[in-house]
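Sample log: Pancreatic lipase-related protein 1.
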Amino acid sequence: MRINFRIKIYIRLPLITSLIINKYLFFYRQKRAETSACYPEVGCFDTSGPYGYIGMVPNAPDEVNTRFLLYSSRRSRRDTPLLDVAFKNMTSIWHWAGKAFNVSAPTKVIVHGFGSSCSNVWVYEMRSALMDVVDCNVICVDWEAGAIIPNYVRAAANTRLVGKQVAMLILGLAAKANLPVENVHLIGFSLGAHAAGYAGAELKNLSRITGLDPAGPLFENQDPKTRLDSTDAKFVDVIHSNGENLILGGLGAWQPMGHVDYYPNGGRMQKGCSNLFVGAVTDIIWSAPEVYGRSLCNHRRAYKFFTDSVSPGCAFPAVPCESYEKFLEGECFPCKDKSKCGNMGYHSDKSPARGKMYLLTRDEEPFCAHQYIVKIYNSPSALPVVSYGKIQVVLFGQLDINETFTITNKDDATLSLGETMKKIIVPHPALQGFNRVQITYTAYKGWLSNGLSKWSIDKFILIDSYGNSQSICQRGLVMQSEVPVVLPLYSGDCNLPELILQLNSGDIRDKTDHDNGQPEYGQQHINNSLVGGGGDGTQDSGVPGDLSAAAAGSTGFSATLGVGIKEYMNVPWMPLVDIVAEPTGNSLDPTADRREQSGRGFTANGATGWPG
């Protein structure tokens, strides 16, 4: 039994382990391999200089058997290629391409990676997306025979040959069919990104290369001549989706390789993919197709992001930041200078942004990164009062489409009066035209600690990637645990910090709030069942009932704001609205259990789901 189990483990080793074995075992067996080789038409290759670390030259062109599949938007049946030509017959392309291609239109060249081919679904999806949106020519470079699993080291060496062949194809089209090289855009995934880099180095004046999670093993931190680099085209943009350490399942490169490098969700692992370390263990048990599916989830997200980005309605705005951690803390969000921010994916070349960019995406398709930062201002207090619990918000848009987000990172998160809670969220792209928000505070109930039964906030604001905001200010809004409240959202920022500063300076306005175009009010009237205040429904305390004894009349509160509680409660604010209590949860969401675990749910009014 033990022997059989060991055999099973060996046979079903995950792709990650296979790469490590290849790197060390196969490498040292190549001492007998040739250190140089010359092939007809493509020229000579050797292992001297920066190429010595791989220790082998590419296979012969006949062994790699590179083929070029040409598609044109002029053709009504775009699912079949105009031409499917082997490299050795490449000259036959010149005659047909001149007739079938629209040489004045952009030409997109897709280069697949290790263990792939042009017949893979992702290539079809990317090609279709490009041709649906842009009048263009598409060429897929199929080098499947040179990228066969599990010989990764050999495939890495073959990228030099494939890059040379791609360059020869484009130069031939330029000379024979008048195809402008400056209209050519190479799109390479994994090893294909480095093959595209080799092609760009040969062409010199290529307009653009997009690297989709360029392969890390055997390329990262090597000489720029041996990998994709910013000098390979006039504009090189890179999406890093799996830049984790190899031993933890990282197959992509973390190192910046372009003019602009995007790191969605941090660039190491992706939301919605299984944990890399745990996934490697479970991969031992399951069959090969499932193994590669889970192991490559993070790696493959790069081409999924790019394909989604082709659609004009699916943007991936990104911002420069010192680190991903700083980005998550909201220190770099929203974009403060549009000239320094980018748009990951197909439209990246429309932005002047350069350097490292960070963004969040959705964890399932569509991955569009319509990001917002949520800020919830807890009411101030004279004392360092804390509670334990979680805060959830439900955003409502047009047609009552709504989605749920958990703002705190756990069920027993520490909440402090006077502090601001922040979280960057990514709503479904169908959720537009926000008009109201439902906020729910849930006190933690544990063996050793419990949260307070009520919690108080002053302000909610939602800011998109470009600084556009919607907000609501409700001074001392008290929320009973597990009882949601619904508030309208108004365009602009209701400027709570500015009002507090005005209080400190004694400048209290008694007129219309010009920032929001709304009349101002004094005392707030809310549902008496939610307030620990007077029986007439008038809130006379800026803190929850179980905190009012500690905060009311405190000199500390006065010192903080420059005024007392009663003056604070009479600050001019936005229009006051009735607080509506609604049942907890989202009654339209058929996957409530899943939403509770992930902190999210998405529904359309009267529907059981929303098409992806």
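Observation: The CA atoms of residues 482 and 505 lie 38 Å apart.
Observation: The two ends are 46 Å apart (CA to CA).
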